[in-house]
Specification:
It is built from 2 helices and 6 strands, in the order ααββββββ. By secondary structure, it is of the alpha+beta class. Strand 5 and strand 6 form a beta hairpin.
Length: 132
């Protein structure tokens, strides 16, 4: 039920953002231009809710399930030690911020994935804005 609530919260924010943008294409919408709007305020409230989270698997087509493992460097003798890495949730890949359609996760940012090795690589996914 908790996973469904998280999905509904994210979907609710998306719907509210579409309404705040006048129902048009989100790519053409400037969220800053709707900041005084009741719709934009509702989006902000939904996204500020602690239950607003990335969706749980199964992930939509093209999305990345951040379920990863990091292992110590290969050594001679006993096998490498591994530990889990990631949040086991679904993340939308992106190249730029405009690829991120969910208003709760509007920023294209990188995460480090290891794929079971000791060397990480960067992957861009949509996330929450950084707040210092």
């Amino acid at each position: 039920m908790k996973a469904m609530t998280r999905r509904l919260r994210s979907g609710e924010a998306f719907l509210l953002m579409v309404l705040a943008c006048g129902g048009g294409a989100l790519g053409a919408c400037d969220p800053a231009a709707t900041s005084g709007d009741a719709g934009a305020d509702a989006v902000a409230a939904v996204c500020a809710d602690p239950t607003a989270s990335y969706p749980s698997p199964p992930c939509m087509d093209g999305w990345y399930e951040y379920s990863d493992s990091i292992c110590s460097p290969p050594i001679i003798g006993p096998s490498s030690q591994c530990s889990s890495n990631g949040d086991n949730l679904c993340h939308q890949p992106c190249s730029v911020d405009k690829d991120c359609l969910d208003p709760c996760f509007p920023k294209c940012q990188s995460i480090t994935v290891f794929h079971g090795s000791d060397v990480g690589s960067q992957m861009n996914v949509c996330g929450k804005p950084f707040t210092p």
